[in-house]
Each structure stands twice: as C-alpha cells, then as structure tokens.
Amino acid sequence: MIIRVALLGADELVRRGLEGMLSTLGGFELCSVKDREARPIDVALVETYGASTDASTVARAVADPYIRRVAVFTWNHHPGLVNEVVRSGVSGYLAKSLTAPQLGRALRAIHDGELVVAPAHLGRREQDIASLNDVDHLTTRERETLALIATGRSNDEIAQEMRISLNSVKSYIRSAYRKTGVQSRSQAVLWAVSHGLNAQVLERV
C-alpha cells in the first residue's frame, strides 16, 4: 500500500527535501494536491512558520473532501500549541526535526486514524538544540554552506563555489549540523529553507 502525501504552503526546495526523506522509506508518494480529485490525498502536511497554525490553509485542507487526513508540519514545535491544533481538526502535529524513520512512523499512524504529536515533548537535549535553532548562531561560512546545500549542490560543488577545500566543507557541515540539530542532508535543506538561508546568503555570495 502506498500512502499519498502532499505538502501545502512550502516552496520547491522544502518539497524536494521532504521527497528525499520519504524516498528512503518506501511506501510513500509525495504528490501534487492539484490532482487530488482524481487521486485523493491520504495525508496533507501543512507547513507553518508562525507561533500558531496557518488557520486558513489548515481549515481549507480539513474541509477538502479529497484530503483524508491533515497534519501540521513545523519547526515551531511547542506542546502548548497542540490543543489549538487538535481543535482545528487536524490529525497530527509534527516537528521538522523528526528523522525520516520517525516521520514515516508518524505518517503511517496518522493514515491509520491515530492522533499523532511527534515528538510528544521536548527533552533537555532537544530544548538546548532548539535554543540554538537561530541563524545568528552560525558563522558566515556555516550559513553559506547550508545555503548551498539547500540549492542541491554536492560537497565538491560547494568547495568549488566557496573556493575552499573539501575537508573544510565537511568541517563546516558537521559544525552547522551540530548547531542546528539536523541529522541529514534532507533535514539541512528543510532547515535552511525555513530559516531563509537560501535567499539571505546566496544574494551576498
């Protein structure tokens, strides 16, 4: 069985990052919401940026007869917002910091009719990481590296673009990952795009 997933409110880079994560799992298809009348959506992920859900987008998705389940997909994952999300009629409240396997398990549970909040709470380590999830904590080189990752460039291409060694690129990637709390290239793409690095940095490179 293939679970059809659609992403609402996100640009192409975020979509590609999510598609990369889902492709490592199998059993999922990231599809366009435009053809939902012909092929209904099993789970629609609504990307949000602010302190609360994008009420209009969520409401439209929840009311759409061709979308079976709706989940909020956000970096601003605060357990205090869960009640608001549940009242809006969604079936899930998912953090973008989830690994691909965690995201896959959450999507399958939502598809099966469960109400899913993932992660259910922030532990001490995650709180420490969340406090660092700000562009200002990155060096200029780390920002440039993440911005170039978000454009789909390989490490070799990044090294050429920045005129530095491949080892330096790897070092910047490791330190940027540590500071942002991401664990994979796909998560790095999502983090960079959601924090505006692809636009902010490349304009100056």
TrEMBL record:
Claim: DNA-binding is one of the keywords in the record: yes
Pfam families named among the record's database cross-references: GerE
Residue intervals of the HTH luxR-type domain: 131-196
Domain of life assignment: Bacteria
Keyword hit for Transmembrane helix: no
Record keywords: DNA-binding
Protein name: Response regulator transcription factor
Organism for this UniProt entry: Nocardioides renjunii
Source lineage: Bacteria, Bacillati, Actinomycetota, Actinomycetes, Propionibacteriales
